[in-house]
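Hello,

I think I submitted the xanthosine-5'-monophosphate job twice by accident. Can you confirm which output corresponds to this input? Input:
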Amino acid sequence: MEQDIDRILITDRELAQRVDEMAAQIAACYSDDDAGLILVPILSGSIIFLSDLIRRLPMKMKLGLITVSSYAGATTESNAAELVMDLNVDIRGRHVLVVDDILDTGKTLRLVKERLHQRAPRSIRTAVLLRKPSKAPPDVTADFVGFEIADEFVVGYGLDYDGHYRNFPHIAVLKEEHY
Ligand code: XMP
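Support: Only one job matched these inputs. Its output is below.
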């Protein structure tokens, strides 16, 4: 795997430090919420970010899972976001925090937020580890953002290319011949 990597953009240490900071921001935001928070990770890219983030959050919470597919097969071109598995918990009247790996064109977050709104939660906020600037329309925003990155396809720390590299511990760019 290592030999396919061109450059590391964000190291595992930098990721750990930033996830600490994000968890502190999120905890401060929800500290008065007695009802308990529902975290909705968008599978599968957010799994490693999610597992690091939730272990740093002190409040009571539940997880609700949703799966969206946006990159079909071996391509870096974003297709229309498509719901593969709908939410599996009741969020009516609850605070919801959507967790995703990356905000790119915004199609995924828009679809998920529309679906969640229909289920009448008390609030919806979003946390993304990475954001590619100026591609998402202005109405698709994230409340908590880990890192702004340039517009290039990245892998590692849960993000894949054609299913691979999710277990690479850093955020990285592949050598051109592997895309
Ligand atoms: P959109 O364009 O809907 O994208 O905001 C969000 C989803 O697309 C995937 N994505 C990426 N996956 N490297 C990846 O491995 C990337 O650079 C990248 N950009 C977008 C990702 O699943 C994200 O949830």
